[in-house]
């Protein structure tokens, strides 16, 4: 995890961590349809919860 922080110069967001652990290496493909559904639902919920221009949390556990 420390390498991740150094690479990004900040702590990774939930979405970045999710993609890193749920996508096939070297591709943009999720390992399963349920993984794709989870992140799409999370992104949609975050977009609905935080209006454009409103700062988003890196992780919203309620989303």
TrEMBL record:
<dbReference type="InterPro" id="IPR004252">
    <property type="entry name" value="Probable_transposase_24"/>
</dbReference>
<dbReference type="Pfam" id="PF03004">
    <property type="entry name" value="Transposase_24"/>
</dbReference>
<protein>
    <submittedName>
        <fullName>Uncharacterized protein</fullName>
    </submittedName>
</protein>
């Amino acid at each position: 995890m420390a390498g991740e922080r150094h690479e990004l110069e900040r702590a990774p967001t939930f979405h970045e961590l999710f993609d890193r652990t749920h996508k096939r290496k070297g591709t943009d493909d999720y390992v399963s349809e349920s993984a794709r559904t989870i992140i799409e639902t999370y992104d949609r919920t975050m977009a609905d919860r935080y209006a454009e221009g409103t700062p988003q949390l890196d992780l919203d556990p309620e989303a």
